[in-house]
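RAB6-interacting golgin
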Amino acid sequence: MLLHQQRTHRLLPGSWKNKSREKTRIELLQQDQKMMEERNKRKKALLTKTIAEKSKQTQAESVKLKRIQKELQTLDNMVSNDICILRGVIEQTSWDYNTARKRYEKAESEYVTAKLDLHKKTEIKEQLTEHLCAIIQQNELRKAHKLEELLQQLHLQATEEEQEEERREEERKREERKREEEEERKREEEEERKREEEEERKQKSVMENQGEANVPSPPDTGSTPGIETETQAGSAMLQQDYPAVTGSDQDCKTANIPLAGQSEVEAPAS
């Protein structure tokens, strides 16, 4: 066998080399083919994987898109319901507004009419009041003339009555002055008492400060609450002795005030 091969090599050296070259080229081609196949397989696997991932992403985006569309549809439905409700409320509000505006216009017209009527009635009342005052004044003048005549006849009696009235007025004023002086004296005594108490507190504070240097002295507020209490008590007493006079009482008193020469006793009788 070996001899046969050696002979064959000896006989055909060029053909053997050609076969070796062809074999090497075929192996290279086969290797290149295998490498290309492997490369193509990897590319195909990568492409398949990419397509699968894209498909998953597309499906996820599709699901997300459907969910978003569903949410948008829900929002649109809610907005539509709200719009319908608001339109109904707006229509009712518009109707209420028109009704209220009509009532306002009617009330405004009635107010203007009532104001004009009040103005007319006020003028009539003022005219009647002036007329009444003129009548009362004329009556008072007539009574004054009549009373002057009577006073001339009863001058002595009127003089005694006036003196009695003046004496009563003086006694009343004297009592008022006494009461005011008493209140003033009480206020002064209260103030003096407060000042003495304040002085005692100050002296006590000074003594305490001398005994304990680190203890701060109480602040001197200088307030005298007793004075305000006494003043309020005096004001209440004055208001109790002299109550306020209302407008109607003042008018009545003005209407019954006797004129010059009219006595205190004769004025009410007239």
